[in-house]
């Protein structure tokens, strides 16, 4: 049995050596056509992570807002800046009427509990995520016309909205409805994505949320022929509502 095992290992080692020889020959052929020597050692990296200047890069508040709005629009999203949550409620209600929304689902957050969307959109049924343990909430989110969330953070440079998951903040609310309304309190809008990520590092592994989701405009998908399709893997219409 031991002899057979050694014989089998020798056969595997032979296959490995043959495969590595083919790889080397392939790379050497490319190097020869490029007329430059093959790189064997990995290139030296003078630093790890972002360079020092990036850690201090910061836009003033108004430029931060302007950059976020420009960058979000550039990827097909919609943006608006409003003075307060009352205006945000009116904006969402107006869009719901304009788009004939019949079913709205929202996260179970204090800001949204106080917003009063139920009274502002009387013609639509509004459900609160995970408020009924007997309900199949993913199905409810999938059939919703509007999903309403409050962002945990946002980054202007990449026009990214960060939404975390918990039992009261299901990922499906931002992922499955046709239209997403994401409210961004202005004090949560940062310049760089690194300013957002550091919060999760500092919280520690034990305090990480169930999910961390980055939303940069509507869902955009393309096959190998670069045929762009909107709304396949997420909402096709996304509104970033900056409040403050």
Question: Can you describe what's shown?
Answer:
This protein is of the alpha/beta class. The chain is 40% helix and 22% strand. It is built from nine helices and twelve strands. The strands form three sheets. Strands 1-12-7-4-2-3 form a six-stranded parallel beta sheet, sandwiched between helices. Strands 8-5-6-9 form a four-stranded mixed beta sheet, with helices on both faces. A two-stranded antiparallel sheet has the order 10-11. The relative contact order is 0.15.
Number of strands: 12
Q: Ranges with pLDDT <50 over ≥5 residues?
A: none
Helix count equals 9
Biggest sheet descriptor: 6 strands, parallel
Distance between the termini: 76 Å
N-to-C SSE series? Answer: HHHEHEHHEHEEEHEEHEEEE
Helical content band: 25-40%
Q: Quick check: average pLDDT?
A: 90
Strand content: 15-25%
What's the alpha carbon Rg, rounded to whole Å?
Answer: 25 Å
* Backbone shape: elongated
User: How do the strands of the widest beta sheet line up side by side?
Assistant: 1-12-7-4-2-3
Structural class: alpha/beta
């Amino acid at each position: 049995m031991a002899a057979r095992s050694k014989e089998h290992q020798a056969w595997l080692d032979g296959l490995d050596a043959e495969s590595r020889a083919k790889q080397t020959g392939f790379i050497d052929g490319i190097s020869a056509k490029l007329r430059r020597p093959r790189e064997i050692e990995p290139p030296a990296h003078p630093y790890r992570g972002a360079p020092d200047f990036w850690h201090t890069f910061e836009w003033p508040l108004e430029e931060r807002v302007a950059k976020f709005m420009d960058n979000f629009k550039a990827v097909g999203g919609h943006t608006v800046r409003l003075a307060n949550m009352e205006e945000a409620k009116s904006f969402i209600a107006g869009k719901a009427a304009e788009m004939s929304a019949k079913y709205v689902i929202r996260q179970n957050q204090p800001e949204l509990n106080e917003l009063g969307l139920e009274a502002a959109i009387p013609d639509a049924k509004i459900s609160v995520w995970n408020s009924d343990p007997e309900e199949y909430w993913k199905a409810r989110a999938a059939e919703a016309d509007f999903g309403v969330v409050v962002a945990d953070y946002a980054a202007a440079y990449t026009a990214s909205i960060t939404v975390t998951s918990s039992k009261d903040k299901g990922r499906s609310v931002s992922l499955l409805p046709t239209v997403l309304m994401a409210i961004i309190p202005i004090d949560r809008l940062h310049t760089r994505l690194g300013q957002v990520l550091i919060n999760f590092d500092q919280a520690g592994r034990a305090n990480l949320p169930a999910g961390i989701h980055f939303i940069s405009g509507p869902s955009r998908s393309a096959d190998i022929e670069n045929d762009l399709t909107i709304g396949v893997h997420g909402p096709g219409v996304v509104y970033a509502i900056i409040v403050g």
